[in-house]
Amino acid sequence: MIHPTRAMLLPAAALLLGLPTAAPSQEPADDRLPAVTEGATARDLVRGAPSPIADSTVTLAEVIEIARERNPRVHAARALADARDVSRSWAGLLPDPRLQLGLMNLSLPGFDASMPSSMAPSIQVTQTIPFPGKLGLEADIAEHTASIARVEADESWWAVRVRVGRAFWDLHTIDWRLDVLRDTKARLEDFELAARALYEAGTGRQTDVLQAQVEVARMSAELARTGAARTGAVARLNALLDRPAATPVPRAVAGALPGEIPPVDTLRAWADATRPAVLADRLGVERADVRTERAGREIWPDFMLGAAYGQRSLDGTTQRMASFMVGFELPVFAGRRQLRMRDEAEALAAMARAELAETRADVDARLGELVADLERSRELMRIYREEVLPQARITVESAFASYRVGAVDFRTLVDAQITLDRYE
Question: Which of 171, 182, 208, 379 is the most buried (most CB within 10 A)?
């Protein structure tokens, strides 16, 4: 089993500090042992025999850097942010003018332009001008939308980084577990050699030899299962790195944890100022306020300016005419349209404020939970390192020595080793 304190400590610290908790690894470790030579124990041989993945290592920082460059979700979020940024270029511009070309008042059926009221050609240009302030508010909305997309891209990267960190930690714990299993298997093989020597000397029992062989076989099966789990962990990590599932990943090495964690109030202040999810919701509230102001101006009509030019031929001369027009919209359905748009914007602004409050509460609760987990894990790790593991190792050595002189039975020795394996 994976050491309980190790399984809790690094994920808590990594998430608390905004760092991921995981890194990759790939193919199952080779648990084949070289032949036993005189003067060397199986334990020594296992420790000295390199495995296919032991030649190199990978750190969390290296894996995060690969994810930054390759993760599809990060690329998609950045592309969306770029698109929103481009959309700012036309926000706040006047609507495109409209040009009309025509032939007016032609006689039928011959379509002749010789009538006194005929105009050929007729050219008309119109331009809609929104009520003052509307375009500026549209530009502000586009600016906030682009800023939100950029911050949401940061939040997507934050989420990917956490997933990569967890995957890295899964791999690290499996690699740790493989080390423990190899060490345990080597020690069990030492027990088998001792049981066999005692049996051949006539002071031991054959059942001890058989039991040792069973325990070694069981440990080999556990190594195979854990190796398969490593292959799965590598596949999950490679998926986050946008690489084929079978891409080899070296041994995952976890770095040192920080010696001190800032007070919870300081962490909360940092999160409120820098966490992308909080920043995005805060910008969402600002954008909702601008949209509410924009909806309040819908009741004011937009203007339309127009100019027209026409000419006709009459009595051998060309007569030219010009026209100018001013128009505006009539909000005849204001009670069912413009005023309802204002109500809608106010409701959406209330929703944005509620979402901001929810995000802050979630971040605050998560910080408190992680700090508590970290402190608890540190205390458990101290107990295991200073008390449990030293005592368990002494128990194994004592049981092994006692077994060699017949003071304890073989089952007691195996139980002591399995207990140490569980604690490690």
Answer: 171
Q: Give the β-pairing of 57-59 and 251-253.
A: parallel
Q: Looking at residue 55, what is its pLDDT?
A: 52
Q: What is the DSSP letter of 385?
A: I
Handedness of CA 415, 206, 195, 33 (dihedral sign): negative
Residue type, 220: S
- Provide the H-helix boundaries in 254-337: 264-274, 276-296
Q: How far is CA 341 from CA 138, 285, 331, 344, 397, in A?
A: 15, 17, 13, 5, 79
The gap between the terminal CA atoms of the chain, to the nearest Å, is 8
User: In the numeric block, which tokens belong to residue 240?
Assistant: 């986050």
**What is the mean predicted confidence (pLDDT) over 337-343?**
92
User: Tokens 């032609």 sit at which residue?
Assistant: 106
Distance CA 307, CA 234 (A): 70
Alpha-carbon span 161 to 169, nearest angstrom: 12
Non-local (6+) Cβ contacts of 344 within 8 A are 295
Task: Point out which residues pair with 306 in neighbouring strands.
Answer: 126, 325
Write phi, then psi, for 100 (nearest 5 degrees): -125, 135
- CA pair distance 199, 403, nearest whole angstrom: 12
Q: Tell me, what amino acid is at 206? A: Q
- pTM across the whole model: 0.74
Give the residue among 22, 51, 30 at the shortest CA–CA distance from 238.
22
